[in-house]
Amino acid sequence: MKILYGLLMASACMAQLQVGVGSAVITPDLDKHGPVYMAGFGQNRVATGVHDPLYARCMALQVARQPLVLCGVDSIGLFLDDVEKIRARITGKAVIAALHDHEAPDTMGLWGPAQGKSGIQEAYNQFVIDGTVEAARKAIASMKAARVKLARTQDAELDTFIHDTRPPVRHDSELVMLSAEDLNGKPIGTLINWANHPETLGSKNTLITADYSGYLRQHLEAELGGTAVFINGAVGGMQSPLGAKLDQPENSFERAEWIGRRVAAMAAKAVQQAGKVEIDGLSFRETTLDIPAANPGFQMAAQADLYRGRKKLNANGTTATLVGYIKLSGKNAPLLEIAMIPGEMYPELSVGGIERYAGADYPDAPLEPAIKQQMKAPFKMLFGLANDEIGYIIPKAEWDQTAPWLNNNAKRWYGEVNSVGAEAGPLINQAFAELVKGQ
Ligand SMILES: [Zn+2]
Q1: Dihedrals φ, ψ of 171, to 5°?
Q2: pLDDT 10s per residue in the chain (439 long)?
Q3: Which stretches does DSSP call E strand in 255-396?
Q4: Distance (Å) from CA 326 to ligand 1 centroid
Q5: CA 223 to centroid of ligand 1, rounded, Å
Q6: How many whole angstroms from 201 Cα to the centroid of ligand 1?
Q7: How far is the CA of 187 from the centre of ligand 1 (A)?
Q8: Residue 107 is part of which domain span?
Q9: What is the number of structural domains in the chain?
């Protein structure tokens, strides 16, 4: 691991926190950007219409000289290559996190017209880059003196929206919010962090939609005012509304809206009950690390140029990615810590609870220190797909590519096929531990 850059934004006495929000529509034009291949299930799912708009939405925070912009994008995933293009056009530091929307266009190339054919439409990827830059710049330009509330809730109902298809059944289902208003009490916006796949509409839907994320933001704005910015969390292993036991039918907009509306209602209630906090310190730190790309499927995808020049492997077969750490503090006490994780982390790597099963490929692998247990602030967020999408991040002790299968299962578990390799979990959690200690 090498430090790419670590940057500490000065924590000045009496610094006045400023907050701004911005958004831009990134809905594809099905003629101009078409054919639009929809992401996240099989090949050749061509979009036939638009149900509701896709967005890039950002919140900018500043206590000293430089803003920090946090953006959530209704996209399946943005590779570091595209994120770097966005960051290069933004003043200050930026975190760009795709929400992992499986009902949005294929910006990664894996779900094109046929096996071995990329689904990327470069004009659309460029449109997403431009839209995210626009949203970030609007957030920075609109910054004003602000007061904030931090809130969280872990209502048991949140778990009912998540079906986990692989043992151990773990969810990182806590809702964590940062809500800002100006000094006159006018709402600016709310950043909300939760973890669940936006794929309620499933694999047959051909209408572009933000899935539950759109309803979540819409209802949160109706309850709290201002602009809602959602960033997804540890969605790996598999955290999905598909298969969840709910009254609303599977694969329906009714179900997507129910999830969004209920999450928004619980989040709004928690924010309304929270007290204000004084934030006068903001630090941002990140590191680049090279992870062995052991997955033969990923190597084949690179050879077939599915990523269209993105995700170039290093000469030694590793792939470079970023891990980051943000800390907001008041009077030198940490108030909110945020982990930036470059893919779909299994929740047990976030909140703990890794299990040792018979059949594991590395039965003696040390258990990675859980990300949220490494943070000590009263409020903790984990941004999944932050600045990159390297696929599933699996605890090494649960890695299972060769039979016998975990828990004596009759067949292979789903997961490893979409992971860069067994070293991703240990390397990322170790890199994060070093970033936290470096503060
Ligand atoms: Zn996924």
Answers
A1: -125, 145
A2: 444 444 444 444 457 999 999 999 999 999 999 999 999 999 999 999 999 999 999 999 999 889 999 999 999 999 999 999 999 999 999 999 999 999 999 999 999 999 999 999 999 999 999 999 999 999 999 999 999 999 999 999 999 999 998 999 999 999 999 999 999 999 999 999 999 999 999 999 999 999 999 999 999 999 999 999 999 999 998 899 999 999 999 999 999 999 999 999 999 999 999 999 999 999 999 999 999 999 988 888 888 999 999 999 999 999 999 999 999 999 999 999 999 999 999 999 999 999 999 999 999 999 999 999 999 999 999 999 999 999 999 999 999 999 999 988 999 999 999 999 999 999 999 999 999 998 5
A3: 276-277, 281-292, 318-330, 333-340, 344-345, 379-383, 392-393
A4: 24
A5: 29
A6: 14
A7: 33
A8: 1-439
A9: 1
Degrees to nearest 5, angle at CA 262 with 256 and 263: 90
Question: Does the bond joining 378 to the residue before it have cis omega, within 30 degrees of 0?
Answer: no
CA of 344 to the centre of ligand 1 (A): 7
Place of tokens 């009077």: 331
pTM listed for this prediction: 0.96
**How far is ligand 1, taken at its centre, from the CA of residue 131, in Å?**
23
Q: How far is the CA of 406 from the centre of ligand 1 (A)?
A: 21
Distance, CA 356 to ligand 1 centroid (Å)?
Answer: 23
CA of 239 to the centre of ligand 1 (A): 8
- Tokens (6 digits) for 295: 């997955």
